[in-house]
Every structure is written in C-alpha cells, then in structure tokens.
Amino acid sequence: MLGIDTNIDSIKQEVLYEVAKLAFAKELEEKKDVLPFELIPGPQANFRCCIYKEREIIRQRIRLAEGKSPSANLDKKNIVQVINSACEGCPITRFVVTDNCQKCVGKRCQAACNFNAITMLRDRAYIDSNQCKECGKCSVACPYNAIADLMRPCKKSCPVDAITMDENNIVVINEEKCIDCGACIKNCPFGAISDRSFMVDVIEIMQQPEIPVYAMLAPAWEGQFGANITAFDMTEALKELGFDGMYEVALGADFVAASESEEWANAYKEGKKMTTSCCPAFVKMIKKHFPQLETNMSTTISPMTATARLIKTLHPNAICVFIGPCIAKKGEVLDTVALNGADYALTFDELYAMFRAKNVEPISHEETLQQGSIYGKKFCISGGVTASVLQSLKEKNENTTITVKACDGASECKKALMLMKVNKLPEDFIEGMACVGGCSNGPGSILTGRVANVNRDKLFAKADNREIHENLKDYENLVFSMHRK
Questions:
Q1: Which long-range contacts (CB under 8 A, 24 or more apart) does 330-334 make?
Q2: In principle, which of 91, 145, 159, 228 could form an S-S bond with 410, CB 3.0–4.6 Å?
C-alpha cells in the first residue's frame, strides 16, 4: 500500500518491488491484475485526483516493469516511454504574463514581438497563444521579468528535441530522435515518463539453474549501497540473489582505454579528430543527429560489451546482465544484439527492488575484490575516460600532448559535435558523457549528489594503484575483439 507521502521515486520503487516479489514467486501472471488495488486500496486518493487514475498509473507502471509499453494498444519499442494516464498538469501556453507586469509606458514586450501576439489589457499585458510563436523575445525584453517561460520540463530538458505533444496535449516521444538519455524521466514532475525494464526477464532466467547468469557492475556502482560495501560484498549479495558471479565493468573499461589509446594515437598522427564510444546516449546522438561524424567515432566497443565478451570467453553460454545507473544501456543492449555483448541491462533502482524482494542486503566483509584499475573505476566520472586513455598512452610511451574536450552533459556534447561537424573543434578528441557529472548521476541511480560522491570517493581511496596494462596482463592470452563487428 502506498502512503500519503508518496513521491515519484517511491511509487516507481514500490511497483518494481511488488513485481519483482511476484516474479521470484512465479506468481506475476496470476496476481498482477490485483496489484493496483493492493497498492491503491482507497477510498481516498494519495497523489492524483481519484483512485481510478492512480490505479491506472500503477497498472501502466506494472507493464513497464514487465518490459512492455504502458498501453497495450501503443506497443512501442523505445526504452523511454510515456505513461499517458500520468501526463497532465503542465501548462500548454509557454509564455505567460505574471502579476509582476507593471503595464509600463515603454511596452518593450509588445515592441519585441514580431507576430502581434501582445496586447495591453486594463491591468497587464496579454499574450494571445494563437498568435504567439514562442520565440521568447518578449520575455527577454521585459524589464520586470514579468513574462514567465513555462516550457514543459520534459521538453525543456530534452537535448535533441525529441518531445512534442499530441492533439490531447499528451507527450509524444519521437523514437527517431530519442537517444535514451533519460533526462525527461528525471525532470518530469508528474512521473509521466519512465523506462521499460528487463527485470522480469532476468528473474525468470536466474530461476533456470542450467543457465549461468553473471552480473556486471558498472563503475558507478561504488557508493550506491554505502561507503563500506565493496565489490566482494556486492558479489556475495548478487550470488544470494541468484547470479552465478559478478564482474566489474571497470575491468572492461581498462580494455577500452587500452584499445582507444591505440586509436587515438593513430588518429593523432593522421591529423584526424575522433570521439569516444563509451556512453550509449552520446553514441546515439552521433548516429541519429550527426551521422556524418560516425567515421570519427571510436570503433572500440563500450566497457559493457567488452566485459560481456570477456565473461563469455571465460564462461561459455553465460548470460550477461549489466547493472548500472544508465537507461541508455538498455537501448545499447537492444542495438548490439549481434555484437555478442550484454544480454540484459538493469538499473540500480531495479536491482534494489530485487534485493528487497528477496530480503537480500549487501553486508560488509573483511575480504576485498578489485578487478579494474582505479582508472577503469573512474570511467563513471566526467573526464574519467580521457584520464584513462591518456594514462594508457603514457604507459606505452606514446605522445600525451593530445587535447580533449571532455563534454559534461548532453548539451555540451551537442555543441562539441556541431563544432566538429564544421571543422571548428579546437581540441583533438571529444569525450562524450550525456549525464552531467558522468554516469554517476544517471537517471537509474539510487543515490546522486554529495552523499553518493562522498561514498564513492571513500571506496576509490581504498583501491590499489595498479596500472591499466599491468591489470590486463592476466588476460593477454584471451582472444576477443575490442571493436564493433
């Protein structure tokens, strides 16, 4: 049952928890239809106008937790989906005159409008929404900041203009433009946008003992479960949950740093500018919005795919499940089926729901485990990929005077790619991170901000100082491609 203090995160978490609990008990199909009534018993509504709307929202969230579209009649394949029943309450008229309007003699707002959309009423200026083209000149011109820009938060946060509204003013996501970054999910104040989950699929596969299933923890996992929970502790908890073992994706990141350093060195000698290929949202931005720059993108696979290929080399027939803060990784899984990479991707909040459903809690042990170098671990921080690649070049005595534009967030990525497109990028390479601050602030995180950073830094401080190529020596005899094929 959801409490009266319910917020967006707790609603999502409770639905994931209940679905995971039923999936582990193999009762999901039998009991999922009664979940909305158990979570919203009524008669009073908790967070919407009525219990009927609340139950419909829960029903659509259950479908997302199952990996389906929220509405059965709108079966879309995109990872990021709109919960139609939850989309409401946003202002449709973007620019609105507020009480701050002084109806001044200068009438700068009216003079700035090229579309005759502004008239003066008795007490204030008025904007005719039928005439307004939403250029924003009136808002800029007003000396009293009396014209508010009320663009929908989801639309405002989307870095690639993938969000529009239909005839009923319900949000529509253009799948041809969407890069799965999840910015709209983080910024929608009604929780009307969410992501499809692989959670039920993973639970069902883990219940088949003949299939080896391995978890792959993204570098950003450190600090999500506390400052004292190490990789060994997480391995034990994941085994208790049903996984056969765990690998740090930081190890795959070391492979990526070594491979990309070779590409960068060769490109630098040729005078060719390149981009990284680790962030799937950044990769989609290039493929969908800057296709002419695909030849400038590193051909090295992502750390997730590298780790999955390593696992499948060591454990034939293994199923690999990436676990991290990134929603775009789910899209990468679907887009790279032919690359022999990860089979599924989960977010940290989905893993947390699974832990709760099985009463599993990571516990601190004396034993430690470190598979990736500290450089691979820092792939989750903006600038971390650059630091790792430059470290790899340094270890190989290559030229390290290379300059890199480390883009912190999708907006910076877009600007840098536009400069590269017109041959105006001053730096030699671009590191693209769609999430501000890096993967650690991804939309699938449990903790973000200062608490997560403090926890992570404490764990990083305990890591040994092994170098990238030193760390890879144990795997020299393994043969698996580091490039997209």
A1: 330/79, 330/180, 330/195, 330/196, 330/198, 331/79, 331/180, 331/280, 331/284, 332/280, 332/283, 332/302, 332/304, 332/305, 333/198, 334/77, 334/79
A2: 159
Q: What is the DSSP letter of 297?
A: B
Q: Transcribe 80-138 into DSSP letters.
A: EEE-GGG-----SSSEEE-TT----SS-HHHHH-SS--EEE-SSSEEE-TTT-----HH
Tell me, which fold does domain 201-475 have in CATH? Answer: Fe-only Hydrogenase (Larger Subunit); Chain L, domain 3 (3.40.950)
CA 477, CA 481: separation in Å to the nearest integer? 13
Which one is the CATH code of 95-149: 3.30.70.20, 3.40.718.10, 2.60.40.10, 3.30.590.20? Answer: 3.30.70.20
Q: Do domains 8-86+153-199 and 95-149 have the same CATH topology?
A: yes
* Sign of the torsion formed by the C-alpha atoms of 111, 115, 118 and 119: positive
Dihedral (CA of 344, 347, 353, 354) sign? positive
Cβ atoms of 484 and 287 within 8 Å: the answer is: no
| Per-residue pLDDT of the chain in tens (485 residues, 90 and over written 9) | 554 445 788 899 999 999 999 999 999 999 999 999 999 998 988 888 899 999 999 999 999 999 999 987 777 789 999 999 999 767 777 899 999 999 999 999 999 999 999 999 988 999 998 899 889 999 999 999 999 988 889 999 999 999 998 888 889 999 999 999 999 999 999 999 999 999 999 999 999 999 999 999 999 999 999 999 999 999 999 999 999 999 999 999 999 999 999 999 999 999 999 999 999 999 999 999 999 999 999 999 999 999 999 999 999 999 999 999 999 999 999 988 878 899 999 999 999 999 999 999 999 998 989 999 999 999 999 999 999 999 999 999 987 789 999 999 999 999 999 999 999 999 999 999 999 999 989 999 998 888 889 999 999 999 999 999 999 998 888 878 888 86
**CA 376 – CA 237 distance, rounded (Å):** 23
Q: Which CATH class is domain 8-86+153-199?
A: alpha beta
C-alpha distance from residue 369 to each of 14, 224, 248, 257, 454 (Å): 32, 17, 10, 21, 20
147's tokens = 């014209």
Check: CB of residue 154 under 8 Å from CB of residue 188: yes
d(CA 241, CA 475): 28
- The SS3 call for residue 165 is strand
Tokens, residue 364:
């601190």
Contact in structure between 469 and 251 (CB atoms under 8 Å)? no
